[in-house]
Amino acid sequence: MCGLCALYAYDSDAPPVDRAELESINDAMFRRGPDGEGSWLSDDYRVGLAHRRLAIIDLSDAAAQPMTMTGRDGSAPRYHITYNGEIYNFRDLRRNLEQTGITFTTESDTEVILRLYEREGAEMLGKLRGMFALVIWDSVEESLFLARDPYGIKPLYFADDGHTFRAASQVKALLAGGRIDSTPNPAGHAGFFLFGSVPDPHTLFAGVKALPAGHWMEVRKDGNRRTGRFFDISSVLAGAPESTDVDLREALLDSVRHHFVADVPVGVFLSAGLDSTSITALAAECQGEQLQTITLGFDEFGGDARDEVPLAEQVAAVYGTDQHTERVSKTDFDDAFDDILDVMDQPSIDGVNTFFVARTARRNGLKVALSGLGGDELFGGYDSFRQVPDMVGRVGAVPGSAAVGKLFRKLSAPFMGYLTSPKAAGILEYGGSYGGAYLLRRGLLMPWELPKVMDTDMARQGLLDLAPVAMLDQVSRPITEPMRKVAALESAFYMRNQLLRDSDWAGMANSLEIRVPLVDPFLLKAILPSILKPGGLTKRDMAMTAKTPLPDQVLDRQKTGFFIPVDRWLRERNSGSKQDRGLRGWAKSVYASANSLSK
Question: What is the pLDDT of residues 224-249, one digit of tens each?
Fold first, then answer.
């Protein structure tokens, strides 16, 4: 796990790459990779690559980046790479390449990527099992190739001013270079208040975009770009086979085993939920007694039903793990408050819990930890899998509901918030489509509320540019099965833009790599025939795959979600109005911090 940076002065009138800018961007990502740094500049100063290293696979200096590779014929160096992530099946890929006569000089996955790219170009991406953001410079073609993993676990941002192309692992790192257009992007600002995170490919800045998940891009020497998509969650879910011959246990074990590929110890985040306890149980089978587990608790919840520590510690005892528990208090939150806002690369209303559990893992000597993130999206565990189809079925059956609903919303919105949730005003207008119903279910604020929290003109333009309901409908439209429609929405929006992004910034802030074995296209395709449909496999089925059974208290525990007492902490921290407390108050704090960068 690392940070990457690339600069390409493709235009003949562009100034040469400035080493100081390259280093400034790289230095801004120090916490992503404190184990080492490196940079490479082409002889003509038209291309620069840089890298921050968190050493996990092949800890030797030979695996440092940027990495340069000579051609198979021994010709002059052609390919140069800077890469963030891990390829879990790299040893299998390496063996296949060795059978064709290719030799290797390191034990790294980075060198395998380069050799695969040399042979197959963009076609290699479908073979990579892991999480990755990568940039490869081809000195013969004078082209820069970028790619991002299927689910978007790893971030990759770029900026192009018409002369120089820039890419990095963090938005704030690009800004640290000092040459990025920081004009506000209305769609990014509106998107944050709608969803609680900024939806890809937008950022808060007009000059910076995210490379979408499952996509690649090639920047040519004339500045033209070619793009392609090698993975699309909607297409996968829409094309699910009907066969039910699925070995759930073996598929889960296979994913867990792959996610333990490392040359350093790998731990597991352990709460009381089915996702993390199932991962712990399966990991214990793979790893044995040396497995470390990390549990986070909160002083405010001690002794009540929201306290997950006692049950998590019971699970750790069942599987004989080396358990580490840490409780967090309001004092810890206050002490870390400014740091959290600083390291949060794009604004998010979540991630505080991940920040603290990652900090605990790092303090106990870990560089890698597995998370149970993704189980709800994979097995339909959220209430949204029932609520969204139900709303669409009921509201969509009302003739003219959208038109009538728009009028009802305009009349009722001013006072609806005093009677019930402000979202109620929009049920008829939005509830008849999957995109609209999902926005009602997941939205932080509703479109008509945005002028209350941001500039009115920016809110209006942001909604026009973002077109949130159309954007959501586009993802769900190709799929016929209702649960799979919701799975596509949850995976492409809530999981990708919030949960996965939070795991990246919160983990990297503590120099910890967070791996997610339930967010794996290979696993998804292996079990897809038997999930996300009526009567399909559930999270309880996942939990029952462990050879040593989970405690009944875990299996029978009602789903409660993961609570953190941020609401209480903010009420004690702030003395503002009621509207400025709780989740919306936290959102305003996060937004104010992030928005200050564009001024």
Answer: 999 999 999 999 999 988 777 899 99
pTM of the model: 0.95
Residue 567 covered by a domain:
no
Of the two residues 452 and 420, the one the predictor is more confident about is 452
Q: In terms of residue numbers, what domain contains 169? A: 2-231
Distances from the Cα of 380 to the Cα of 225, 391, 479, 485, 486, angstroms: 38, 17, 15, 11, 8
In this prediction, what percent of the chain has a pLDDT beyond 70?
A: 95
* Helix axes of 90-98 and 109-120: crossing angle, nearest 10 degrees: 50
Q: Is 283 in the same domain as 297?
A: yes
Rounded-to-integer distance, Cα 43 and Cα 57, Å: 30
- 328 and 292 in a single domain? The answer is yes
Q: Does 69 lie in the same domain as 194?
A: yes
Q: Are 116 and 73 in contact (CB under 8 A)?
A: no
Instruction: Single out the residue in 180, 200, 231 at which a domain terminates.
Output: 231
Contact 491, 151 (CB under 8 A): yes
* pLDDT at res. 568: 73
Are 68 and 79 within 8 A, CB to CB? Answer: yes
Task: Tell me which DSSP letter residue 16 carries.
Answer: P
Cα–Cα distance measured from residue 163 to residue 294, given in angstroms and rounded to the nearest whole number: 47
Considering the chain, what is the average pLDDT of its residues?
93
Complete DSSP assignment for 246-310: --HHHHHHHHHHHTT--SS-EEEE--SSHHHHHHHHHHHHHHGGG-EEEEEEEGGGTTSTT--HH
Distance CA 515, CA 534 (A): 30
Cβ(328)–Cβ(299) below 8 Å: yes
Neighbours of 161 (CB within 10 A): 13
Residue with tokens 């099946």: 89
